[in-house]
Amino acid sequence: MSMIDHLTIRRPDDWHLHLRDGVMLEGIVSPSFQHIGRAIIMPNLVPPVVRGDDARAYRDRILKAMEKAGLETSSAHRQLLMTIYLTETTDPDDVEAAAAEGLVHAVKLYPAGATTNSDSGVSRIDTVIPVLERMADVALPLCVHGEVTDPEVDIFDREAVFIDRVLDPVRRRVDGLRVVMEHVTTDDAVAYVSAASSGLGATITPHHLMINRNHLLVGGIKPHYYCLPIVKRERHRLALRKAATSGDPRFFLGTDSAPHADHTKEAPCGCAGVFNAPNTLSCLAQVFEEEQALDKLEAFASLHGPAFYRLPPNDEVITLTKQHEPVRYPEKVDTEAGPVTVFDPGTPLYWNVT
Ligand code: NCD
Ligand code: ZN
């Protein structure tokens, strides 16, 4: 059997991406759009993107940053799939109008306090039911950060508890609501999503496919592996790898590429987030090859996401090539907000987009 060393797939999309704002946005926009086509743009800015007008203004700032960085922007309007940050005062009419104009493609639920810049998130889920009902009517997906914030619940259990306490009750209550469980990290989430009959998908990040909590904590704490939901034990990582490479259409790529300036991560109270945009495809190809599932990479990275979001897959293709020498990617990306360390999976990568 000859070794596969080339793989041509439709251009992937990123169904969960943080682009930030201001000088950080300017510094990371190029590596963030190196290979991907479209991206669901997370709204957790300070202040957050809470109304259609905010989403439009943010999209225009991203477009400007893309231009400034010399990126091709003729199709950028179609690339930037904006989201609205759900709060307890979100107006259903505003959400519906922003979706109808083709600007906003999802609404994001952050349980208040769950992660970076989530203070304006939802504490009482009852308050947002009218928005969720409207979203169900117009088939606008809800992206959820699936962790409870109850201080009594151990950080490693927060995703599993969220499914029981919040996600499942909401899905039962709001008939027809389409939900993406973002950046799933556990066997429990994989099982829940796999068992759903319809209207539920999940994104998986490259880093959760590659590292477990030992990588984060053994032999010294690695702030650049700290993200939320936190990486779990090995059994969970293996469940994620199985889901991603299974060909099951409910699982698709969301990198959760989440840049923070190094000094804010390498700190006594370090920020959560892994910046993986520069080597996402190298990481994914490696994982899929290890799982002997390179033939499923296109489905995970380029087909299942558009199908869930009811968009056509990209027409363009990219080619991945396996090199003899490890792929070189920058250790850090310099921005005016400071250097940002790129995800280092701790093993050499051999696949590269050529
Ligand atoms: C994200 C960020 O930095 O914005 N951080 C993270 O650890 N994933 C927020 C998020 O998606 O939870
Ligand atoms: Zn995120």
Write the layout of secondary structure elements.
Elements lengths: L5 E5 L3 E4 L4 H11 L6 E3 L10 H17 L7 H4 E6 L6 H9 L3 E6 L19 H9 L4 E3 L13 H16 L5 E3 L5 H9 L4 E5 L1 H5 L2 H5 L16 H11 L6 E3 L8 H4 L14 H11 L6 H13 L7 E6 L9 E4 L2 E4 L9 E3 L1
Parallel strand pairs: 2-3, 3-4, 4-5, 5-6, 6-7, 7-8, 8-9
Antiparallel strand pairs: 1-10, 10-13, 11-12
Helix pairs in contact: 1-2, 4-5, 7-10
Q: How do the helices and strands follow one another from N- to C-terminus?
A: EEHEHHEHEHEHEHEHHHEHHHEEEE
For the biggest sheet, the summary is: 8 strands, parallel
Q: Mind telling me the CATH superfamily name?
A: Metal-dependent hydrolases
The structural class is: alpha/beta
Inertia-based shape: globular
Ligand types: N-carbamoyl-L-aspartate, zinc ion
Determine the strand fraction and express it as a percent band: 15-25%
For the largest beta sheet, what order do the strands appear in spatially? 2-3-4-5-6-7-8-9
Q: State the helicity in percent bands.
A: 25-40%
CATH class label: Alpha Beta
CATH architecture: Alpha-Beta Barrel
Mean pLDDT: 96
Q: What is the tally of helical segments?
A: 13
Number of strands: 13
Please compute the radius of gyration using only Cα atoms.
Answer: 19 Å
> What is the CA–CA distance across the termini?
24 Å
Flag low-confidence runs. Answer: none
